[in-house]
Amino acid sequence: MARNYVRTITDMERYYYGAGNSMGYSYSGSELLKADAPMLSTTGGTYNAIYGRKVWSQMNQEFNAFSILPKRPWDRSGWRVLTDKPNSGAVHGGVAENATLPDTVKPTFQHVAAKPKTVVHTFDMSETAIFLADKDDGMGDIRSVLKEEMGKHHAEMTNKMLLLDVDTTADNGFESIDRVTTGDSTGMTAGTHYTAGREDIYSINRDGSANSWSYAEVNADTGATDRVLSLDQLDDLFQKIWVRGGNPKVMLTGYDTLMRLQQLLQSQQRFMEEKRVTPTYNGVKGVPGMEAGFVVATYNGVPIIPSKDVKPDVISRMYFLDTDYMYFSTAIPTQYYESGIETGDPFAINRLGQEGMYRTMGELWTTFFGGQGSIRDLK
């Protein structure tokens, strides 16, 4: 299958994991070791589709920050954003009788560029360790144990990257939801909430009003003093995002803040509604019936998904995400490679042992910052 035929995440999975051939694609051995092909002692530098697929599935189901994001194939390295409405949004267009036509107007656009990031986690084991693990009180099949645990580690680290604090630079890791949902002069200020410049994203300078279109909506204390969580804060942020033209599809927070919100509603003799949802490659979706998905709390009809990795001030921040405009652009879904003595190619790693590697390539994309928001400085 030519890489150019990838149009959807399903296409991408077929290409990288060999999940059927219903679209008439062919796979060359140099591109892909099919999922039903075993790793043989004569196979060198093996790409194993089974473990890559398993971890990719885990990331989309069990690691909540990643799972709530729609996944789309990487089809370009930038996008255009509307930075100002025609006539700056001011009312115009009325024409007096027999008057000349009004001046032409047009919206203002800006190009935003991004490059895919690669996240890699490797592990190794010696031939002696492999041998002894199957003796006495050893671990047994140490290769399988490490594949399983390192796959979980790869998924967890991806989830943590997506939830790093705005003041932590992305460097070569994926961008963070916390940075996306930041905005200068929206209750947050450089030097108080973060180091100046750390709010910049996708090479956009977000310091000052020149690029105010790139600000997310924020409910925060101007002095970064932690405040007691209130329903007014949630309602305020919903209103701000709606006015900008966004419509949050999911809320992400920590377990502590979710519990505090439940207590707050109960104290006012109100109760959180529930919704049955399921993570999909298109984000979190409501599902009918009692057998599918899982039950989560909602506020304003929006599902609230908890994650242990959400950044706390005293209690965890809250993110309001319009996932029509925020998604994970996938260049290469998770892959697993293995080389060494057990796969018949010790010369590849130049020692008598075995090495494994998980790799995912892509980036967190946001094409409309006004649809995203956060509540910070909570206790």
Description:
There is one protein chain. The protein has 379 residues and is α+β, with helices and mostly antiparallel strands. The strands form three sheets. The chain has an eight-stranded mixed β-sheet with strand order 6-15-12-7-11-10-8-9. It is built from nine helices and 15 strands. It is 23% helix and 25% strand. The N and C termini lie far apart (53 Å).
Keywords:
9 helices, alpha+beta, phage-related protein like fold, 25% strand, 379 residues, eight-stranded mixed sheet, globular, five-stranded mixed sheet
Question: Summed up, what is this model?
Answer:
The protein has 379 residues and is of the alpha+beta class. It contains nine helices and 15 strands. It has an eight-stranded mixed beta sheet with strand order 6-15-12-7-11-10-8-9.
Topology:
Layout: H1 9-17, E1 46-47, H2 49-61, H3 64-67, E2 71-73, E3 78-84, E4 108-113, E5 117-126, H4 127-132, H5 142-162, H6 177-180, E6 217-219, H7 231-244, E7 250-253, H8 255-267, E8 273-280, E9 283-286, E10 294-299, E11 302-306, E12 318-321, E13 326-340, H9 346-349, E14 353-366, E15 373-375
Parallel strand pairs: 2-13, 6-15, 7-11
Antiparallel strand pairs: 1-13, 3-4, 5-14, 7-12, 8-9, 8-10, 10-11, 12-15, 13-14
> Taking Cα atoms only, what radius of gyration do you get, to the nearest Å?
24 Å
| Sheet/helix structural class | alpha+beta
User: Biggest sheet: strands, sense, closure?
Assistant: 8 strands, mixed
The strand count comes to 15
Question: H/E order of the elements?
Answer: HEHHEEEEHHHEHEHEEEEEEHEE
- Overall pLDDT level: 82
Tally of separate helices: 9
CATH architecture of the largest domain: Alpha-Beta Complex
Shape annotation: globular
Task: Report the uncertain regions.
Answer: 20-44, 287-292
Give the strand order, joined by hyphens, for the main sheet: 6-15-12-7-11-10-8-9
CATH topology of the largest domain, anyone? phage-related protein like fold
> How many angstroms separate the termini?
53 Å
Strand content is 15-25%
Helix content bin: 10-25%
The level 1 CATH classification of the largest domain is Alpha Beta
Number of domain units: 2
